[in-house]
Amino acid sequence: MTSTNTGENSRQSEHEEALKRAEKAVQAGAGRAAQDPFRLRYHLMAPSGWMNDPNGLIHFKGEYHAFYQHFPFGDYQGPMYWGHAVSRDLVRWEHRPVALAPTEPYEFGSPEGGCGCWSGSAVEHEGEMVLFYTAHVDGSTPEEVQAMATSKDGIRFIKHPVPVIQGSPDGECFGFRDPKVWEHEGRWYMVIGSGNNGRGRALLYESANLVEWSYQGVAAESDGTQGDMWECPDLFPLGDKYVLIVSPMNMDGVKNLYMIGEMDFAEGRFTPESSGIIDDGPDFYAAQTMRDSNGRRILIAWMDMWGSKLINTGRAWYGALTLARELQIAEDGTLASRPVKELDTLRGEQVANFESGLRLQPDEDRSWELPTAFEWQADIELSETEAQELRIVISGAGEDLSGAESAGTSRSVSDQRTIIRWLAAQSSIELNRNEAGIGDSGIYTTALPATVNARLQLRLFVDNSSVELFINDGDRVLTSRIYPLASGRRLQIQAVGGTLVFKGMRLWKVDGLVVGQ
Ligand code: DQQ
């Protein structure tokens, strides 16, 4: 055995030891995390510890893999590891051992500064799973390099001995991270998030073998209003177009962005023709996509936000991923995120079923007492509706859990409410979480597409501390965390200022913990 191989073997065992320590810490915290009143029922979270961006999404040998940014030793952001879970249906997830630990000098620095195996992606090559990620150490030169790890089974990863991209092509850049790799006509391509001179950028690389990469130039750049650094870029074909999604930094409160356009591989240039926001809610960041074996383009994002009030509250866990969404280009040319059809299998007991319609008189309301996890679906007949507003209120019900909270709230459980309003005159929907509980406040609005003149369909997934509202099957989406301290929920719908006609309305409990521990 050569000395290099001996060196590599000892680094591999060091990595495995670090993974074992991480796994032990995650398991040790799981019991406490499971007791937290805000734990979700049907979203993917780490068993314990910190979670942020989804990473390495891939449909590999019949299983969906979701890796994620993870700090196993606390519910705060520390040196980053890659957590791991798998699913056969994008709905029921099982945890797998922590997949990557920061052990190389270019991955590990002072825990006070940012460091670790930061975000990246996965591809399949010759039957193996290959991960690409940014190795980051605050203050070192270079601060960010692109690293690779491979696996035969998709569980145990061997790191490539050196980074595959040793530093940014641009000494002046602001960030050089989050490699997203894909194959096009027999060549490998990678986009990396960066910024220069106040403009976010996606840098393009090309490779024949996944190990040697050559820089192709700036594939796309902010028009000057789209943020100064683009985190987590993802560039992929959709229909007969290409789509670029990015998580812009410092863009006037906008945290996610898509562009639809054309990709010229010969020039290494993506030309956007239109742009928009993927999700108008406050808790949607670092989205990433994968193509599955059915040809669907599946998107999952981090269902939280940097700076959120609930960070660092000592709950033994922080962070969750959104429900899986299938991307499509909608009738009006915008990007739609449809809930994947497998989510239908979550439905438990049906609480309401107005199959042949429901007519609410002006100011009439209906309400239901529910567990903290449910799905509501409604089709509104706009041609017969005179109401100025449909008000949907999700409030706390049942037992008041605030006694357990030092941060507590003086509101009674029923006063903790998230209010969603369809506003006919404005043709918009707003989500108001100003009174939702102990988390952040804010009102978030989405302008409805012109197609809403014909129909308005709402699908609402509530999971204890989250709300995902899909409008017209995901033509528009609002995702938000909410933090009511109550053991149950009450859903109320109300017609304001006129008659509201539903063609159909259905409501189900979602029961059972669908994320394995
Ligand atoms: N989070 C990762 C980075 C990425 C950022 C670090 C986005 O790679 O740019 O955890 O949330």
Automatic annotation (TrEMBL):
InterPro entries listed in its UniProt record: ConA-like_dom_sf, GH32_Enzymes, Glyco_hydro_32, Glyco_hydro_32_C, Glyco_hydro_32_N, Glyco_hydro_beta-prop_sf, Suc6P_hydrolase
Catalytic activity: Hydrolysis of terminal non-reducing beta-D-fructofuranoside residues in beta-D-fructofuranosides
Region (Disordered): 1-32
Residues of the Glycosyl hydrolase family 32 N-terminal domain: 43-339
Location within or outside the cell: Cytoplasm
GO molecular function: hydrolase activity
Tagged with keyword Membrane: no
Main location: cytoplasm
Ranges annotated as biased composition (Basic and acidic residues): 11-24
Enzyme Commission number: 3.2.1.26
Hydrolase is among the record's keywords: yes
Keywords, ordered alphabetically: Carbohydrate metabolism, Cytoplasm, Glycosidase, Hydrolase
UniProt xrefs under SUPFAM superfamilies: Arabinanase/levansucrase/invertase, Concanavalin A-like lectins/glucanases
Enzyme class, spelled out: hydrolase
PANTHER family per the UniProt record, alphabetical: BETA-FRUCTOSIDASE (PTHR43101)
Record family assignment: Belongs to the glycosyl hydrolase 32 family.
Protein name: Sucrose-6-phosphate hydrolase
